[in-house]
């Protein structure tokens, strides 16, 4: 029986595989025996070696083709890496072996007008702790506490201090002793996340309290500040000016950071420096500030406010709270700010030596970080009469030398609103009698200016609705002065338009939208919703003193580099003019002189009690202001004066929030300041840097916190 498939005719391998299946298929024919033996195995399905045709060339072709494709892919990849992406590839390789670190530049100095530093630098050693490492490895805080003598509680407080960016190491110990620094360097594995850095901190040769709001302070940069300054080169451990001159002139003071490229091995060990680019020290800013004058003004303002708080207002019989205040000295011929004080204040050294969170929040709540000279808004009261008097003579609405009988009680002509809206009283209902413009300014007759307010509103068809406000605009009282300090506040002069704006912004605080005759009368003598900053009022009186030119107030005189080369020299910049011919200026000036020189002048007593120089040889003109802000509150106290009258060199202003009468609270500060100025005239600007980088090196065992950055 020949059933072996080997005996069958040969064909294709598929037919040889198929035929046994067809032969054995039980359904192939109906006559097939069902139980016929089916001996089928692997031999029945697979062809024998002698039946397969050998094709070695094809196999080599397939194998060779595979490796050829693989080679092409490798060569293509090498081409991309070596040719197309050459620079990227090199950078990637270098990044694995090279580390670039920043060498922060030493910050430039802030100099007084005589060239001596108001803000200097000192190099110290600082210990910092990574917040991430402290969270992952809490025992590190105990190890640091044992080494430094700090408590774990203090370290936790430093780590959570909101003054520092949460994403960068927190300063733990400033002025670290050499023994502690050396121990950390020799035992790095015991102190994970701990870094020891040389830092350049700010130091204040005249004490950190001198002109604190003007100078400002620096602090660790935040992520938001880095975003706001793209491409400026700031790092997460950089410091940046936060306020005052430090902030406004940051781009000059900060300098340019250097870099150090280090070679490291696979374990991260430093093998050596490959390249170093030295940092460029920051430029120094020379201020118009006179150091002695600034020190004197700070003292006068503080002493006066503390004295006012312990005094009794002769009218209200209350102790004035004297919440805050400001004082300014300006050169009216250039706009140079010679001194500027704000109270309450703080000590800049505390930002270097360490400021607790509790103290920081207390100072903040007291308003110590505010510069009230440029940010405080005060009702001007009678100091605003300069503006109304100028408008009077510019328009000719009332002659300067025409007298009017000040009876102490002014009744609005034709008023139908009843006594409350129709009658205005002088202070204490005191009648001044016959007064013209000059005498009205000397004795501060409210009656005279009530009448002007009425006349302007009654003749608005001729002079318009805002003739007084228009003059205030010329003096710059409703706009920024553009002083070179950050965060200046803009003042406002009451008007129908301003009322609507205030009501829209705060309906509850400013419910009245309509404008009546009484509103115009109040605005004319500096009341109502008018609120001005001290720097605006100082600049207005400086404009009058120099004959009508309004200058931009300037704290800085120049920027110089470490080689005593002038980078920027700030010349006086004119912002506008006020029309003040002799026919307008002389009657007003006569009245302002009388305030100090005439026995009936509102500041006569204060000045003759305080000044220790001859007012005949150095005459002073000025104006008091006592501005009511609210019922049962002490009025804001103002005085602004300038002298010598013929050729004014100085304008001096003081304002005290809820300080009482201008003659009692503010005038003595101005008088004391003129005492100093007469005895110590302000000297010339010296454009000479004293920068040595670093200025000094300091090491101590002080356990405090610093807010400055690494220098290497």
| CATH H-tier superfamily of the largest domain | DD-peptidase/beta-lactamase superfamily
Structural class: alpha+beta
CATH class of the largest domain: Alpha Beta
Shape: elongated
The overall pLDDT average reads: 85
- Through-space gap between termini: 101 Å
Strand content: 15-25%
Number of alpha- plus pi-helical segments:
29
Number of domains: 2
Q: pLDDT under 50 segments (min length 5)?
A: 1-34, 691-712
What's the story with the biggest beta sheet? 7 strands, mixed
Question: How much helical structure, as a percent, in the residues?
Answer: 25-40%
Topology:
Blueprint: H1 13-24, H2 42-45, H3 56-84, H4 86-97, E1 98-103, E2 110-111, E3 117-129, H5 131-136, H6 139-148, H7 152-159, E4 170-173, H8 178-186, E5 194-203, H9 212-215, E6 218-220, H10 223-228, E7 239-241, H11 244-248, H12 250-253, E8 258-264, E9 270-277, E10 284-287, H13 291-310, E11 325-330, E12 337-343, H14 350-353, H15 357-366, H16 372-375, H17 385-395, E13 404-406, E14 409-411, H18 419-422, E15 423-425, E16 433-435, H19 437-443, H20 446-458, H21 460-463, H22 467-474, H23 496-505, H24 517-524, H25 534-545, E17 549-551, E18 556-560, E19 566-569, E20 574-577, H26 582-597, H27 604-610, E21 621-627, E22 636-643, E23 650-656, H28 662-665, H29 667-679
Helix pairs in contact: 3-4, 13-29, 17-22, 17-26, 19-26, 20-24, 26-27
